[in-house]
Design brief:
Layout lengths: L20 E3 L2 E3 L3 E3 L14 H12 L4 E8 L11 E2 L3 H16 L3 E7 L28 E2 L12 E2 L2 H20 L4 E6 L4 H6 L14 H4 L1 H13 L6 E6 L10 H14 L4 E5 L17 H11 L2 E5 L5 H9 L5 E4 L1 H5 L3 H9 L17
Parallel strand pairs: 3-4, 3-13, 4-5, 4-6, 6-9, 7-8, 9-10, 10-11, 11-12, 12-13
Antiparallel strand pairs: 1-2
Helix pairs in contact: 1-2, 3-6, 7-8
This protein binds flavin mononucleotide (FMN).
The site of flavin mononucleotide has 20 residues, from strand 4 and helix 10.
């Protein structure tokens, strides 16, 4: 029995993080989005019982948007051999019960799709996050804009134009399968040093053709990927893009560059929101981590490009989340580890902020005493 008691009441006196938001034809019941988080628990890219329970629990807990982890468009695009995929129809069909349960609970089922590029073929964090070379069992040859490796990992193969076309086609097919699987929101992963980010950053792209050099050329791959996805992802459904807004390395991608990239993407007209993350492309990065440390990226990009944004990174306090939404600094708050630690964070935050429009599931109503 999965009765949905979450009502969307457009009450002006509700806290801002609990007010609904319309994204094309989709309405999220609140501004709380669960961040994509790899679980490294799939075999052959298939969603398993763990993924179902993990994602559905956050929908029961009251998040407005529930994102899958990075779900890969091809086998070679996986970060680890145990990452999720959406490159075949079995994977597509296995997601269906999860997307329908999330919807029943009043949340939006969302999928992040991506290709790990030169950071593919690694072991899981609890096995050391080690590069697995193609010569080792379970490893494979990685690909990237150029053949510069990440740190001392095995060198990727530089992509020729046929390889680029194949990856773009994989993006398009993955988006089609995501739609058929019942997802209502899709995000392209172009952050954290994975394939699309490695095209954007001068630290990992020294190509001399139309995909390298100036910022317009370095943006070409992601803009083509966006077009490829939009060709099979319907116009009435929202599309997000996760960017690393800075490399945090001298000579790397900067926030100024990202503002220029987002202006190009805004002109393209296919993306609805920039999910503002950072780093991951160079081990020399120096990140001054503190609660909300990436909020200024979301704020500036929103202000200077007019694009909707989402802020992520050490968001935990309901009051702080409320402040950044109420003051229009960003459009969504994205919670990663906060929701790992407490799937019911949105319900607790609703109690704390006295929101009237997020109700505990009837089955759990007697727990609302704390
Ligand atoms: C276990 C774990 C797995 C992650 N996997 C992904 C991922 O698949 N895709 C992604 O874009 N970011 C991933 N991230 C980054 C988070 O989505 C988030 O941006 C980051 O943890 C900062 O937010 P937080 O402080 O709320 O956790 C992961 C983070 C963690 C902790």
């Amino acid at each position: 029995m999965t009765e949905n008691r979450h009502r969307i009441l457009k009450r002006e006196n509700n806290p801002h993080i609990f007010r609904p938001v319309k994204l094309r034809s989709v309405e999220a019941r609140n501004r709380i989005m669960m961040s994509p988080m790899c679980q490294y628990s799939a075999t052959d890219g298939m969603p398993e019982e763990w993924h179902h329970v993990h994602l559905c629990s956050r929908a029961v807990g009251g998040a407005g948007i529930v994102f899958t982890e990075a779900t890969h468009i091809s086998q070679e695009g996986r970060i680890t051999p145990n990452c999720l995929g959406i490159w075949n129809n079995e994977q597509r069909d296995a997601f269906k019960r999860t997307t329908s349960f999330i919807l029943e609970q009043g949340a939006i089922p969302a999928i992040q799709i991506g290709h790990a590029g030169r950071k593919a073929s690694t072991s899981r964090p609890w096995e050391g996050t080690r590069s697995i070379s193609p010569k080792e069992p379970g490893g494979w040859q990685t690909i990237a804009p150029t053949d510069q490796p990440f740190a001392d990992w095995h060198p990727p193969e530089a992509m020729n134009s046929g390889m680029i076309d194949r990856v773009l086609d994989d993006f398009s097919k993955a988006a089609r399968r995501a739609l058929e699987a019942g997802f209502r929101l899709l995000e392209i992963h172009a952050a954290h040093g994975y394939l699309a980010h490695s095209f954007l950053s001068p630290l990992s792209n020294s190509r001399t053709d139309g995909y390298g050099g100036n910022i317009e050329n370095r943006s070409r791959f992601i803009m083509e990927a966006i077009d490829a996805v939009r060709a099979s992802w319907p116009n009435d459904l929202p599309l997000f893009l996760r960017l690393s807004c800075t490399d945090w390395v001298e000579g790397g991608l900067t926030l100024d560059d990202t503002v220029k990239i987002v202006r190009l993407i805004r002109e393209q007209g296919a993306v609805d929101l920039i999910d503002c993350s950072s780093g991951g492309n160079d081990p020399r990065q120096q990140i001054p981590v503190h609660p909300g440390y990436q909020v200024p990226f979301a704020e500036r990009i929103k202000r200077e490009t007019g694009m909707k944004t989402a802020a992520v990174g050490l968001l935990h306090s309901p009051d702080f989340c409320e402040e950044i939404i109420a003051n229009g600094r960003t459009d969504l708050v994205v919670l990663g580890r906060t929701l790992l630690a407490d799937p019911y964070w949105p319900l607790h935050a609703a109690t704390k902020l006295r929101a009237k429009n997020l109700l505990w599931p009837v089955q759990y109503e007697r727990a609302n005493i704390f």
